[in-house]
Amino acid sequence: MTGTTEAKDVRRQGPIKVMVVDDHPMWRDAVARDLAEAGFDVVATAGDGEQAVRRAQAAAPDVLVLDLNLPAKPGVQVCKELVGANPALRVLVLSASGEHADVLEAVKSGATGYLLKSASTEELIDAVRRTAVGDPVFTPGLAGLVLGEYRRLASEPAPAAGVDEPKAPQLTDRETEVLRLVAKGLSYKQIAERLVISHRTVQNHVQNTLGKLQLHNRVELVRYAIERGLDEA
């Protein structure tokens, strides 16, 4: 038991702080209760968009579990404002809508993942854990949609840049290898199995790469990699 506790402490000091935002009180309370029972620290809840922004700024959660259809201020605007102010914040959208336009708008506003409300409690708990480390989580079928959109955006002409553009940071061979698999849409667990390394080592490589490239999360990393054709390599 002691060894397990120490291993967890290395990864994170204390439980993951989560905030739940939904305008339906019974649903919001049920999600908050399920997450608390799973060991998360539910630091706040909110029932509308404006309340969500205020409380999130005060409570400083690690992960925001966010519905899109909110009164006062839509969920995508909440996401955009909070991630803009704090790029380290992870946002997991939990929505009844599987419409492609809603999914893409959420991701463009800064969401790390998108889960449908039809997901099981176990799927939600796993999704929040993965979202906390920057692993994008999507309901099956939606991940391909998002990757396809990134490829479309990456194929568009880039805005004109100055002649003296800074030289691209140097990544190690292993970092490039991990980045290539990230671009293909593999999860950290799948990358670890493919490269026969630990899940934690994959996380370390991703964090090092984010730092070198001055990116904030894995969603941005996927787009960076696709823009450079690494998903086709």
TrEMBL record:
Residues 17-132 form the Response regulatory domain. Residues 164-229 form the HTH luxR-type domain. Coiled coil: none annotated. SUPFAM superfamilies: C-terminal effector domain of the bipartite response regulators, CheY-like. Pfam families: GerE, Response_reg. The keyword Ubl conjugation does not apply. The modification 4-aspartylphosphate is found at D67. GO terms for biological process: phosphorelay signal transduction system; regulation of DNA-templated transcription. The keyword Phosphoprotein applies. GO terms for molecular function: DNA binding. Keywords: DNA-binding, Phosphoprotein. This is DNA-binding response regulator. It comes from Streptomyces albiflavescens.
